[in-house]
């Protein structure tokens, strides 16, 4: 299933969860797994780090997301 998440590209759901993490919020396990599978978040211990690719989505979000 997570391999399919990589292929679906950027969704509004993903960007919303990235924003939540950027504000210091905790994501649910399934959302974090999707973001990690797409390479936008890495988890080190119990800390969730937004990668450069994830940061780019926050700084320049695609238009007309589903």
Walk me through this protein's architecture.
It is a single chain. The chain is α+β, with helices and mostly antiparallel strands. The chain has one domain (2-59). It is 53% helix and 12% strand. It contains four helices and two strands, in the order αααββα. The protein has helices spanning 2-8, 12-22, 29-37, 52-59, and strands at residues 41-44, 47-50. A two-stranded antiparallel ribbon has the order 1-2. The protein starts with a helix and ends in a 7-residue tail after the last helix.
Query: Mind telling me the C-alpha Rg?
Result: 11 Å
Number of domains: 1
Question: How is the largest sheet built, in terms of strand order?
Answer: 1-2
The biggest beta sheet is recorded as:
2 strands, antiparallel
List the helices and strands and how they pair.
Blueprint: H1 2-8, H2 12-22, H3 29-37, E1 41-44, E2 47-50, H4 52-59
Antiparallel strand pairs: 1-2
